[in-house]
């Protein structure tokens, strides 16, 4: 047989072996494995636990900043590699005997392997948690002046975090073993790890992928000192506000954070990371759908709503996280509360209904529409596929691809482990929910059971979409409405239930996603389970301890009006949660949306989402060959308002421009560069931005050094009149009175 024939036969054999139905997976994930490589070693335990706890403490504190910072897992990927290789060189290889047994162990089982590296990073990633219970404790302390039982909160939060892992076991067969559930985001990590461990020779006049990754990360870090410390105002520069300093209209039109963002731009690479639109991972059609949705939202519907003065819109700020009364003042929830912090209907009648800023009110409509559109889209376009997939999976008739066959060499996690975890954590939730974080935050066990059932019903379709397309559903809004209707008027009880609804699904998704990544990289499932559960248990305690210490030691944290200039401790996420506690907990959807609220018309958005998907579906049947119709994805388009505010127009436009540059120009005209460096560029941007933010906080801001004293120090966009009312019947504040229209 000739050389060409041999090569052809080899390729045919490889094609038969690599039978994964997803092309991106075939091109990215290796189909080789060595099951004899040790994974959960002593090195893995030490590095995974230590760095996981460091990650837990820094993440908890970093989320209280104006622009949240954290140490992404890619940072630990780089840090762990040289440390692991160093330990492999210096640790003794001799075997030690466990006392009283014949079992032996060694401190050094051999070279630091790719699998060991991956498991350590997965364990560290379990430290990347942001328990909502901690943030609700902050709200109770800062905004209500109440004491909390920290010990009960720790137990409640830990059991809530762990419950997600237990419930994930019920879905692992459908979402992990199924080759069509490919979890697109996991491929980035596959590329990064293979880059770090696969040797590559540098060609003359070029750099290796590892060199490119290091150079790009360092460049982002060095450049990040400018907008991060020397010139914070560079995060959002609004030209119209700088030119017309006393014009309310100019400030509303030009504000890049809480306005239309016309003429606003950023010099901060961090802005590209904060938003809904990922310019490196999302395909071009998704980027265009999201951006078209944002344009429809911000530049069509919002102006119509605002200038027609629906629900006193012109009395209120154009865009804000806060809620307001009918007079345009911040809503004083204490004026509608009883002494036990529950809703008082008589006080409510004598005060005011609750109102949102225009951007937020319209945003709720888009969110409702995207949810109904997403569910119907899945049913129409993927319903038959999912039905047959479920029959195959749970009928044990599912055909395994190459990765499934390779994973058969490893023992799966017994179902009893998941059952024990679920039962134990449910008992913990029952007991601590009954005792309460304080005397006003208690819920009966029936609400815990109802929450679990709702989580299962809503999380499964969400994860199916996420695993097959990379796009999830805004299911959180449904749980908020259901509990708000069932448990109306009880602010702090709903806080507890909302934290439960947030934590459990996020851990189900996190666990399933990392299981799929481990599935691709052939990590033993039992060792992954043990490592993740152990780190999560300790990380939750450390996270809450570090965060609570910061809340008690940083003066005026989460109070922007009282913070010094340039201080990052504005807590936008905490303030948004405080607002949500009033909307969904105290007043509830009865008094805000349907049937008695000023925004009852927003319920129509559910039907709008259904109509749009049906119309698009009928068009695709009428014109099956239309490429244009194939690029329209209604649920993604309607997601163009999700997260705004706090995500501003400057975030959307900067991400979109980078996305067009990357996924159209570079992809079309420099495809080799794109295929080689795209995912590495995304990782370098994340690591550089995160490290510079962490460096500034650790070395400068912790010493109360916020940068040089000049106008560029303001971590704002110099649009102080952006929140001023334009209704002539409202008495302006002194700040707004100085402006003109």
The helix/strand class is mainly alpha
Describe the largest sheet: 2 strands, antiparallel
Compute the separation of the termini in Å: 85 Å
Strand tally: 6
Strand order of the largest sheet: 1-2
Q: Report low-confidence residues grouped into runs of 5 or more.
A: 1-6, 12-16
Strand content: under 5%
Radius of gyration (Å): 27 Å
Membrane topology: Multi-pass membrane protein
GO molecular function, one term: oligopeptide transmembrane transporter activity
Family: Belongs to the oligopeptide OPT transporter (TC 2.A.67.1) family.
Protein name: Oligopeptide transporter
Overview of the molecule:
This protein has helices at 3-17, 23-28, 42-62, 73-90, 114-125, 132-143, 150-168, 172-177, 186-197, 209-230, 239-243, 248-254, 270-273, 284-307, 345-349, 358-394, 402-407, 415-435, 445-469, 476-486, 491-521, 525-553, 572-592, 604-622, 627-630, 634-638, 649-669, 671-699, 734-737, and strands spanning 95-97, 104-106, 237-238, 264-265, 323-324, 355-356. The chain is an all-alpha fold and 741 residues long. The protein has a domain at 34-96 and 105-179 and 400-583. The chain has a two-stranded antiparallel sheet.
């Amino acid at each position: 047989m000739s050389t060409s024939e041999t090569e052809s036969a080899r390729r045919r054999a490889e094609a038969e072996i690599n039978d994964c139905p997803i092309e991106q997976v075939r091109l990215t994930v290796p189909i080789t494995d060595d099951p004899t490589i040790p994974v959960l070693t002593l090195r893995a335990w030490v590095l995974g636990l230590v760095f996981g706890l460091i990650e837990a403490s820094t993440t908890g504190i970093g989320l209280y900043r104006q622009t949240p910072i954290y140490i992404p897992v890619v940072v630990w990927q780089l840090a762990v590699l040289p440390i692991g290789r160093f330990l492999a060189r210096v640790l003794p290889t001799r075997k030690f005997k466990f006392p009283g047994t014949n079992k032996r162990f060694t401190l050094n089982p051999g070279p630091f392997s790719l699998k060991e590296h991956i498991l350590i990073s997965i364990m560290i990633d379990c430290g990347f948690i942001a328990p909502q219970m901690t943030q609700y404790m902050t709200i109770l302390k800062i905004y209500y002046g109440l004491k909390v039982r920290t010990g009960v909160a720790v137990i409640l939060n830990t059991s809530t975090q762990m419950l997600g892992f237990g419930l994930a076991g019920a879905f692992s067969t459908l979402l992990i073993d199924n080759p069509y559930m490919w979890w697109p985001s996991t491929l980035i990590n596959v590329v990064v790890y293979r880059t770090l461990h696969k040797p590559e020779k540098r060609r003359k006049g070029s750099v290796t992928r590892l060199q490119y990754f290091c150079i790009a990360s360092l460049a982002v870090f060095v450049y990040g000192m400018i907008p991060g410390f020397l010139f914070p105002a560079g995060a959002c520069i609004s030209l119209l506000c700088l030119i017309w300093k006393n014009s309310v209209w100019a400030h509303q039109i030009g504000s890049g954070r809480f306005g239309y963002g016309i003429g606003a731009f950023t010099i901060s690479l961090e802005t590209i990371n904060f938003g809904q639109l990922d310019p490196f991972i999302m395909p071009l059609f998704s980027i265009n759908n999201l951006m078209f949705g944002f344009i429809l939202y911000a530049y069509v519907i919002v102006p119509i709503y605002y200038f027609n003065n629906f629900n006193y819109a012109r009395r209120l700020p154009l865009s804000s996280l806060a809620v307001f009364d009918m007079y345009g003042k911040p809503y004083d929830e204490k004026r509608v509360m009883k002494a036990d912090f529950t809703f008082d209907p008589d006080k409510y009648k004598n005060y005011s209904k609750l109102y949102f800023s225009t951007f937020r009110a319209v945003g709720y409509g888009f969110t409702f529409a995207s949810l109904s559109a997403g569910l119907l889209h899945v049913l129409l376009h993927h319903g038959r596929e999912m039905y047959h997939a479920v029959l195959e999976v749970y009928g044990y008739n599912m055909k395994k691809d190459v990765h499934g066959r390779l994973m058969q060499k490893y023992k799966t996690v017994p179902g009893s482990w998941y059952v024990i975890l679920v039962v134990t954590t449910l008992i913990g939730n029952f007991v601590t929910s009954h005792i309460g974080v304080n005397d006003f935050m208690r819920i009966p066990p029936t609400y815990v059971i109802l929450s679990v059932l709702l989580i299962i019903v809503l999380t499964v379709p969400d994860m199916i979409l996420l695993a097959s397309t990379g796009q999830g559903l805004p299911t959180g809004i449904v749980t908020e409405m259901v509990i708000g209707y069932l448990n109306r008027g009880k602010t702090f009880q709903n806080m507890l239930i909302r934290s439960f609804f947030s934590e459990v699904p996020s851990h189900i998704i996190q666990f399933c996603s990392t299981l799929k990544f481990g599935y691709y990289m052939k990590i033993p499932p039992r060792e992954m389970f043990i490592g993740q559960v152990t780190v999560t248990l300790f990380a939750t305690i450390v996270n809450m301890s570090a965060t609570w210490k910061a809340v008690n030691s940083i003066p005026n944290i989460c109070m922007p009006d009282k913070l010094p200039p340039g201080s990052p401790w504005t807590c936008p996420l905490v303030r948004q949660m405080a607002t949500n506690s009033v909307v969904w907990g105290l007043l509830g959807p009865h008094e805000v949306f349907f049937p008695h609220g000023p925004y009852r018309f927003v319920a129509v958005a559910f039907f709008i989402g259904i109509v749009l998907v049906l119309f698009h579906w009928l068009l695709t049947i009428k014109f099956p060959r239309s490429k244009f119709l194939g690029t329209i994805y209604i649920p993604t388009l309607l997601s163009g308002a999700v997260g705004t505010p706090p995500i501003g127009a400057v975030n959307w436009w900067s991400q979109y421009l980078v996305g067009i540059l990357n996924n159209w120009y570079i992809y079309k005209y420099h495809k080799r560069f794109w295929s080689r460096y795209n995912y590495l560029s995304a990782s370098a941007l994340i690591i550089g931005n995160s490290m510079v933010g962490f460096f500034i906080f650790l070395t400068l801001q912790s010493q109360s050094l916020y940068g040089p004293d000049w106008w560029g120090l303001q971590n704002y966009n110099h649009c102080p009149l952006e929140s001023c009312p334009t209704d002539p019947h409202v008495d302006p504040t002194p700040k707004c009175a100085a402006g003109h229209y």
